[in-house]
Amino acid sequence: MKIEILYPEVCCLFGDKANMRYFKLCLPDEEFIETPIKENPRFLTEDVDMVYIGSCSESNQEKILSRLKGYEERINTLIDKGVVFLTTGNAFEIFGKYIENTDGTKIDALNIFSFNSVRTIPKRNNSLFVGEYENIDIVGYTSRFSHTYNIEKNDEFISVKKGFGASIESKNEGVKRNNFFGTYLLGPFLIQNPLFTKELMKKLGVENPELPFEADIMKAYEVRLVELNKDIVFD
Fold first, then answer.
1. What pTM does this model have?
2. Are 122 and 142 in contact (CB under 8 A)?
3. Residues 6+ apart with CB under 8 A from 163
4. How confident is the model at residue 187 (pLDDT cuts 50, 70, 90)?
5. Distance (Å, rounded) from C-alpha 147 to C-alpha 169?
């Protein structure tokens, strides 16, 4: 199995690097490739089973777009073949139609999906989150300078129970197509959501996935789920 971590030196905000650090523990015998931003993605010329991209700054988001422009056909082919993509934070925005700046100018994105994203700089949008994906409770938080709109129904990922979705008004968080998963949820998403992590491992062909520190991680997940589901009362 070959897993490519794309541009880890710039896609490393909000503790997102912990996702692949943990995944390496989940799959200790598999090959992990870290591709720096000055190099072309290995998925262009090699078969890979998974691609991961984490959160980045808005300026680096544009650098990543400049690196991936022209490879849209290859990316679509990989998605259609069932290659797993996991993109966290604002990384999934690069796969939409465009990203709109606060002055109304637009940055053309990869146009893999039909959605568009709108930056809200300097207003940061923070939210604790509880949602559901295929009967799995998803927990986490978002902290971002943008919202995403016009996600097609078939591309919706997590139904919102609490917190912000793709936009403040949306009842959906993130995007999904085949085995492509994109979410605004930050930090060690795979550690915070062990049941989803097991599903991801199954999609990679692991029949009976086992997680490192599973008892502790499940206990933390259950506590977090209870806490986030509580009603907040302000005196």
1. 0.94
2. no
3. 127, 128, 129, 130, 131, 141, 142, 173
4. confident
5. 10
